[in-house]
Design brief:
The chain is of the alpha/beta class. A hairpin with a 5-residue loop joins strand 19 and strand 20. 39% of the residues lie in helices and 16% in strands. The structure holds adenosine-5'-triphosphate. The site of adenosine-5'-triphosphate (ATP) has 21 residues, from helix 8 and helix 9. The site of adenosine-5'-triphosphate has 21 residues, from helix 8 and helix 9. This is ATP-dependent RNA helicase prh1. Keywords: ATP-binding, Helicase, Hydrolase, Nucleotide-binding.
Amino acid sequence: MRDPSYYGLKTEKNHKRAKSIPWPDVSDDDKDKTKGNGVKRKNSIVNGSSDQSRGGQNGHKNKKRRSSVHNGDTPQSKDSAHGPSSSQSKRPHVNGSGPSTPHSAKFKAVQEQRAQLPIAKGREALIEEIRKNDVTILLGETGSGKTTQVPQYILESGLARNGMIAVTQPRKVAATSLAQRVAVEQNVSLGDLVGYAVRFDEKSSTETRIKYLTDGMIVRELMSDPLLSHYSVVIVDEAHERTLRTDLLIANLKTIQAKRNPKSDAKGKGNADASNPLKIVIMSATLDAEKFSRFYHNAKILYVKGRQHPVKIYHSAESQLDYTDAAMRTFFQIHTDQPPGDVLIFLPGQEDIESLQKSIELYARQLPRDKPEVLTCTMFAAQEHSQNNKAFAPTPPNTRKCILATNIAETSITIPGIKYVIDTGKCKEKQYLARTAGGGFDTLLTRDITKSSAMQRAGRAGREGAGVCFRLYTEDAFNNMAVAGEPEILRCSLTASILNLKCLGQNLEELDLMDKPDLETISSALKTLWLLGAIDNNQKLTAAGRQMALFPLEPQYACAVVASKEYGCTSEVLDIVSILSASSKLFVDISDQRDAVTETRRKFKHSSGDHLTVLNAVRAYREIAAAENKHARREWCRKHFLNERTFLEARDIREQLVVTCTKIGIDVNASAKDNDEPVIRSLGHGLAGNSALLQPDGTYKQTMGQTIVKVHPGSTLADKKVPAIIYDDLMYTNQIYARGVSAIPKSFFLTHALLNQKKA
Ligand SMILES: Nc1ncnc2c1ncn2[C@@H]1O[C@H](COP(=O)(O)OP(=O)(O)OP(=O)(O)O)[C@@H](O)[C@H]1O
C-alpha cells in the first residue's frame, strides 16, 4: 500500500499499538494463574471485570469474587451427554439453502472454524459457570465467538432442558443473519432447530431450540407469556447498546427469575429445585460489566480474551471535515493499492449512504479497465430487509464489494468477504426533544460515535482473516470519545413501552430499571396514551388500549386501526398504516429527476393530503397487480417513482394486521368506499397528538404544544393552507417540519375529546 499519509491517514506506530484498543484485560494475578496452568492467556476464559483489569478502585473488593476459570481442551462432545443433543432434534432437510451432508467438506470446514474460535477453548469452563449461576455476565472481544457459540454450547450441554434458548439482538438484520449462520453450523434448515423472530417476520417451529430474536419481539412475547416460560435460557446480546427494549427486558428478567427460581439465593446461585428455572446470560464486547453485575445481585463476570484474526487500525492524521469525501478517497485508496477484500463503510444515515454510493459508482466507471469492478450495496434500517440482505451475497469474481451501512451493520454480524472497514466516526441517534420543542418528539441527530461503537465497527473487519480499519478521525478524537452512549431509555419517547407495560400490569415508574427515565418524558408518554384513549383519567389501561397493544404497530397507528371499526373504514386504514409501517418509503425521490417525479406523483395526489395520496397509490398498484405480470408491475412502479418493495412488504404487514383485527372482532373488509372523511377521522384519533392549527400569520402551531411547525416541502399540502393538520412525525433540521400531513376538519378535535371522555 502506498504511504497512507498520502491520503491524510496516519499509520499506527506498530501493530501492537494498533491493537491497543482499551480492552478490559486480565489483571496480573489472573495472568499468573493462567500461566501457572499452562494455558495460553489469549484464549482463556478468566473471570474479572474491566475495573479489576485496570487495577481500578474496585480491584480489591472484586478479587474476593474471583475464581479463575481456565480453558479446557476437552472435546466439545463431552457436554452433550447432559441433555437432548442437538442431533436428536436435527432432521435431515434437503433444500437449496438447507444443511449439507454431515461429512461434506463444507460441514467439516465449518466445524473446524468453530473449533478455532477463541471461545471454544473455554467451553467447558463457561458451561460450568452458567450451570452454577443463575446469571452470568460474559464479556468477550468482537469475533471471539460469543453470539454464535454460547447458545450452541448451552444447547449441547443440556442446560436448556425445559425450554428454548432465546438470544436477543437489538437489530433485525443481526437476528436473522445469526440464525442463518447457526443453522449452518448445526447443519439444519433454518426454522427447525434454529430459528428467528423479528417484527413482521418469523421462522421457527415446535422443533426450535435456539431462537434469535430482536429485543422488541421478546418484550412483546411477555404479553402472552409473562414468565417467558417457553425459555430456559435468555441470552441478552449486545447489552452495552442499552436499547430501550433491552433495558425493559433486563428489568423484567430480574423479576421473572425471582419468580421462576424462588429459592435462588441473593448471589444468584443456581437453584436446582425449581421446576422451570431461568438462566440469564448478559453478553457484550464492550460493557460496563460491573453495573450489570451489581444490578443482578453481583452476578459473576466472565471474560473471553482473544479474537481470531488481528485488525490493524489507522487513524487519520487530521480531522476530516467532509467525512463522505474522506470515505470516498479512502475507498479508492484501498481499491487501488490493497489486496482483494471487500470494504464496509460506516456512515450516519441513508442520505449520506445514497450520495456516497452515487459518487463511488461514478468514479468507479472512470477507473482503468484492468482494475476489478466495484459493486456497491447499501444497508440501513429504512431499507427493506431483502435489500439489506444483498450485502451478504457472495462477491462475484474480479469484483470488490463496497457496502455502505449505518450502525445496523455495527454489531454481531459477519459479512463474508469484508477485510476493510472505513469508519467515519458518525452516527444518527434518536433523541427525544421533550423540553426543546414544547410538544415533545423523537428526532434523529447526527453525532460522534462512542468508543464502544468504534471498537465494534473495527471488529467487522477480521472476521474471516486479518483485517484493516481506517478511522476517519484522529487518535486523539478516539481517545476523547465517550466510552458508551446514553441508554435509550433516557433519550427516547416511552409511549409504546408504557402501553406494553400497562398490559403486563406494570408501571414504568415502579419498574426496577438500571437507569430511570426522567418524569417529564414519562408524563409526556402518558399524555399521548391518554389522548389515544389507551389509558383513562386514572392512568388505567382501557379496553381500547389493550386492543392497541396487540398490534405490532406504533400506538398511534394501532389506535387508528381500532378507531376505524367505528367509522367502518378498516380496509382503507389498514392499507395506509401498512405502507407507513414498512421499512422503506413508498415514494422514491430522485434528485436529478425532480420535475418528472413531481409530475408523475400528481396522478396520485389527493387534495386532503399525504395519507389519502398513499391510499390512491395503493389502489392504483392493486389494479396493475391484478391485470399485469410481475415484470410489467415492476416497470409501472419504476415509471411512477414508487418503491415496489414497499408495496410487497406492506402486503405482508397487512396480512398480519388482518389476523389481529379478526381476533378482536374488527371487520377488515369494512370500507368507506369513496367517502374519505371517515378514513381521515380514524387516522385523526391516532394522530390527535400530532396535530397543528393554522395561525393568522399562516404558520401552524401544535395543538398539544407551543411549537411552530412547517409542512415539509415534499408533502402534497406544502403549498396549500388548511385550518388544521395531522401529521405522522416531525423532522428537525434548521426548522421543524411535519411529514406525512393531511388536512382534518377543525370540528374533529371536539369529537375526539368527547370520545375520549367516554372511554375515560
Ligand atoms: N455468517 C457467517 N459467515 C461466516 N462466518 C461467520 C458468520 N457468522 C460468524 N462467523 C464466524 O464466527 C466468528 C464469531 O462470530 P460471533 O458473532 O459468534 O462473534 P462474537 O464474539 O459474538 O462477536 P461480535 O460481538 O462482534 O458479534 C466470526 O468472527 C466469523 O469468523
